[in-house]
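Hey team,

Filing this mostly as a record. A colleague (T.K.) asked me to run one chain through the structure pipeline before their review meeting, and I want the input and output archived in the tracker in case anyone asks later how it was produced. No errors, nothing strange. Just documentation.

Input sequence:
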Amino acid sequence: MSTGSLEQWEKGYLAGVLDSDGALIIRRIQKSYSFNCYLQFVGTLEQMVKVRDMMGCNNKKIYEHGNRYSLMLMKQEDVVSILKRIYPYLTKKPEADLVFRMRSLHDRSNSFGRKGNKPSKETLNQRLAIFRTYKSYKSRSGGHITNWDEFEESLNEAYNKISHDNPEPSPQELINKLSSEDRSKVIKRLREGVETSSEIMNSSVPLEREEIVRA
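Output structure:
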């Protein structure tokens, strides 16, 4: 996609289409702690052709739904790029803010899933809090976030609840998650008085374990 520099009226046009029948979508990837964000533009065929031309994605498919048409922007960097450009003209600013926060949390740990470089538990809980806040607002009448104070309060409540439901595991809980071979190594080191259990679990010594984070 190549948006170049959008004219002011083009930014307003894209924001208007997205505000009216379009949607900002956050989807969970199966049952993981990874989430993707999408922009869905909905309107007439003429509107969708204009939207596609303005965003410079002429190869993007336009879908027909009876007398309505839609166009989905799925590439994550494109979603953020377009939202930043049209943000001042959007009514759905709180929803756009959720997308920005979610993508920021993913960008900080873009190698999620690679051994030895997983996001912190706090980051995972923040992602889940954003997703739950998004789902909560979407399930309400109208499905749009319009009250900034209520939005921030709901997001904080979701995060606090998740953090409370998923407290930091004790060193013993972490040890119990180890393979029998690694558990023996830890116990041996504890008996030798080399380190405390917390120091061992937070050390750079490669131990096969998984983050204790409940979905």
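Quick notes for T.K.: Residues 111-116, 194-215 have pLDDT under 50 and may be disordered. The first strand starts at residue 23 and ends at 28.
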